[in-house]
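Figure 2 data, in text form.
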Amino acid sequence: MKGPARLLLPAALLAAIGAHAQVPPPAPAASAPAPAASAPSSELRQLCAALPETPTDGRGLAQRAQCVLTGITPSTRRFAEARELAAKAMEQGEPTGGFALYLAFANDPANMYRRDGKADLEAYRKLGERPLSDRAEQVAAIEGLAFAAGKNHPGAGVLLASYFYETVAPQNVMRVRAMTGLLLRNGARNAPLEKMQREAAVIEKTAPATKASVRSFLDAYLPATTAALQGHAVQTAGTCDKATLKSVSASDIRNAEYLPLTGKMVEKTYLVKGEWMEFWTFDACGEDVPVKVGFIADGWGGAGITAAHNKGQ
């Protein structure tokens, strides 16, 4: 090849790949990005000060959970107490209870793999190896988020869209597009939401058969394109610096195991174990080049990825 390869992608997909190319490993799908931490507002402090120590109604329980979670209300069992309060609020039908239940799990250091802003790969591996028997809190958190989103809780829909974006499972690209589309139609305009919508729409149009998440598809695109350009050289003994994805087909998932989510919005949205192969066909300087892209669920919502020229096709 002469000079750096030029990747011919739709603008939205190209921008998305650039944003994710230098971010190993994938963000933990169990805890899709939560709102950035900030100092509690004076209004929230006043609310927490006025709350009874043992509220009994759903709204009061959810507010108390928020006060404990933010640290305004001291607790020696901060995340555990916040989860207990949030679960009780949710039992009473309070959407904020489900939202707080998810945030309590997502922000608990026991469920994170980043240390001082850096990815701890060993911690990530251990999280992915958690058996299903140790994931009851994770299941409850995701079910809580879906419950809150289903009740139109402000913010829950955005976090649920982000969960679908990060988490490997068939149909999650479609779920991102559907959820973000609904939120945007209802007036929830912000740059991250619009970005998720664009990326999901481009992937759904270009590769409707993929079983990857938006995140893992974007992570796979650069190595797959590199394999296509190398494959062009093998097939033609020539050079090429242009590759465009034409089509994608996918095998069934072998040994699939899902997080046991039962809610209608999140059932079979989290592949814990399983592997599959996708067959991506590229147009490289007028030559069809087949590439095999392998995915294997890593247990924490992401996937290991391999890409190679499909010489046997």
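Caption note: Residues 214-236 form the longest helix (23 residues).
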